[in-house]
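Example noted here:
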Amino acid sequence: MKTSDKIDAAVLVLLYGNPPKVLMVRKNCLVSGRFSCDLAFPGGHIKKDETYIDAALREAWEEADVFPRFVDILGVMDVHETSSQPKLRVLPVIGILKGPIDAKPKDSEVDHVIWVSLDSIREPRLVFHPIRGYVNGFMLPGNMVIWGLSYRIIIDLKQKGYTKLTTS
């Protein structure tokens, strides 16, 4: 898909460090919803009259306490689509952290914030997700599972060479 396609939501793919790590949030496991207990990039629906960059930055602020002025936007990736119904078209916005932050859950929608090394992500395999049962994904310490859309975005980042990116 191209970025000219209809976009339902935007996520912030925030990179930091060398080798790069990416900021991810876990959607609260105790709150019933479509993405419960999923490890994801901070993001959500684009509000009326809001740009996709503004939406990604707003969601990162609301979910993980990432102050927008400490993010340099590098660009966007191609639109990615969720596997689950109804399908959502999500635009990943790539940013680099340029200032100090204390990323932490800021909203009840999120129960954990983590920096994940891109180098640590390997081939998917069958792993146990606490809500969905067995899924094809990658298990992180603390029984956190990267799978689906988030996993595909990370693989796309790696294929585009972002593991070699030098950040502060």
In short: The chain has a mean pLDDT of 90. The CA atoms of residues 35 and 141 lie 19 Å apart. The first helix runs from residue 52 to 64.
